[in-house]
Amino acid sequence: MPDFDVIVVGGGHAGIEAALAAARLGARVALVTFERTGIGRMSCNPAIGGVAKGQIVREIDALGGAMGQLIDATGIQFRMLNTSKGAAVISPRAQADKAEYARAAREMVESAPGITVVEGEAVRLETSRDSKFEIRDSGTAALSNLEPRISNVGISGLRLDDGRELSAPRIILTTGTFLGGLMHCGEEQTVGGRVGEKASVGLSAQLRELGFRIGRLKTGTPPRLDGDTIDWSRAEEQRGDDPPVPFSYLNERITQRQVSCFITHTNERTHDIIARNLHRSPLYSGQIQGRGPRYCPSIEDKIKRFADKTSHNIFLEPEGLSTREVYPNGISTSLPRDVQYEIIASIAGLEKARIVRYGYAVEYDFVPPTQIFATMETKLVRGLYLAGQINGTTGYEEAAAQGLMAGLNAALSLLGQEPLVLRRDQAYIGVLIDDLTTRGTDEPYRMFTSLAEYRLRLRSDNADLRLTPIAIARGFASAGRVAVFEAKRVAIEQARRELENTRHNGKSLWQWLRSPDFPWGDAAARCPKAAGLAVSSARTLETEARYAGYVELEEREIGRMRDLENIGVPAALDFERIDALRKEAREKLSRVRPANLGQASRIPGIGPGDLSVLRIYLASQ
Fold it and tell me: For residues 431 and 8, what is the distance between their CA atoms, to the nearest angstrom?
């Protein structure tokens, strides 16, 4: 009997969700991490959520994940973003007390039944070959989420740096920036994935040996400042929402003390300092080879790419209630220490600010994600799953979502149950994973609302209504979550029926509510039986009424896409034998190996003609 059912390598946001999810389904889990005190540590900004990212956190929570509960317990400023721009893009965000967040995450993992924390470095994956293995299809297009197997190499365990061996039939790698991590500060280079911590150096070479393509990416972090040395009077105060709105559907209110953030700006002097020293930046000297995040660039990149701008915002974000350390969001840099000192001293309010830790960039290895299935399992090694930055993403939220799905699917596969793959019309998590596995990425991937075709359905207010029924049906929703969800669902349904049955000037109140000139307050005043609905539920009901026409249009488009997704593509199909396909199409289809025509249609470079050829070929078989 193996030592464990599932081994999770890495204790970051992806690893936490993966371990907890697998354990909730009854798996015996080992969480392997360099040190247990690093579990849940926030490597970069002390915040959770944001545009589209907030929706992901709500979805993680709706599926029973931990991130929403952790930030609710440790958040020190909550803000709802884009409230003036429409329901589709409204997104929650919260500053965290980063020390408390890590403590709460570690406590949650260590106290979870079925999880054993193992301190050590993973240096080698143990694999085995099954000579009797045969490629098998899912058997039916209607079950196209059942990913086909295309390899006879399977995972069997893990070896640690001290010689210990752990056996398990499922392993999830959530290595973050530690896989071949190399930190840069000016000309200085330090092996590691986070300041003060070492890197994982053995796994990359083995992944190459196993046939995986490996790429190189880069991310960075700004210097940290001593808040007692900042002149706060010269910065603009940014207050949080009052009252703060929780992330988790299990929580009704936030009880801990809240604080303000502040905004200052770079200026022409700042930009001149950076421009004069660009040749000393590892980004421009050729020292860094990895590609950085497009939408979260370093301050060097900002000055270079937006040379016409004379100022950039800097958000001064407190890192906790028990520390004076401040995170200056917006000036991520790998410039030398003396230049960082000049940069900080040139900014209003920071002239005398003391740097307590200098900024740096980190390069790391990743596995281009077209090499995994939508279940997060790799195509080359059965039982091996990848989640988080190893798949080319950036951000705590994207990592946690992948970890959750990897953990669930690893455990479901052991139980012999159908895997869970969310569609693009079901969740931002579905959009994220489909983008990664179908289109791939050659730069750090970040989620935006614009990447979702059906964002009116994928709102932050209705994630539980969309996804908690799945968690209940699949058996990983707690009894408490079921009770909370059912009470909300029943209350909303009853309120809607009352609105539909109450007439006002010839129309039902539900019909009136579809007009922007007839807000919820007017409907509630005329329908006492609906007036008692909770504020959050009332907003959801009002939004559903207001955008009903647009959602109906989305539903028709979703129906057309489902028709394509119901046409499965056999796992063993040799695309090279389909002569009518263009050479480029054959190459791309062979690399991605789509599970169905819907996924094939989203592969970059696959056009309508290619789909027609493939559809005709499949119909003839």
Answer: 24
Fold of domain 6-216+364-469: FAD/NAD(P)-binding domain (3.50.50)
Distances (CA, A) of 130 to 146, 371, 378, 487: 21, 20, 16, 49
| Mean pLDDT computed over 291-296 | 76
For residue 149, count other CB atoms closer than 10 A to its CB: 17
Assign 315 to helix, strand or coil: strand
Given a contact cutoff of 8 angstroms between Cβ atoms, the answer to whether 288 and 363 are in contact is yes
Q: What is the number of alpha carbons within 13 Å of residue 40 lying toward its C-beta?
A: 27
Percent of the chain scoring above 70 in pLDDT: 96
Q: What is the pLDDT of residues 155-197, one digit of tens each?
A: 999 999 999 999 999 999 999 999 999 999 999 998 988 888 8
Q: Decide whether 6-216+364-469 matches 567-620 in CATH topology.
A: no
> Which class is domain 478-550?
mainly alpha
Q: Give the whole-angstrom CA distance, residue 212 versus residue 197.
A: 26
- Give the phi and the psi of residue 291 in degrees, each rounded to 5: -90, 135
Place of tokens 């470079």: 605
Stretch among 70-74, 412-416, 548-552 having the lowest mean pLDDT? 548-552
Q: Pairing relation of β-strands 507-508 and 503-504?
A: antiparallel
Strand, coil or helix: 98: helix
Q: CA 188 → CA 182, 220, 541, distances in Å?
A: 10, 14, 56
Task: Determine how β-strand 153-160 pairs with β-strand 313-318.
Answer: unpaired
Please give the DSSP secondary-structure letter assigned to residue 155: E
Task: Annotate 489-523 with three-state secondary structure.
Answer: HHHHHHHHHHHHHCEECCEEHHHHHCCCCCCHHHH
Cβ neighbors of 364 (< 8 A, separation 6 or more) are 176, 177, 178, 179, 180, 181, 182, 193, 199, 216, 217, 218, 219, 290, 389
Tens digits of per-residue pLDDT, 103-160?
Answer: 999 999 999 999 999 999 999 999 988 655 554 443 333 333 334 445 789 999 999 9
Would you tell me which CATH number, out of the four given (1.10.238.10, 2.40.30.260, 1.10.3720.10, 3.30.530.20), belongs to the domain 224-360?
Answer: 2.40.30.260
Q: Please report, to the nearest 10 degrees, the dihedral formed by the alpha carbons of residues 414, 416, 418, 420 taken in order.
A: -10
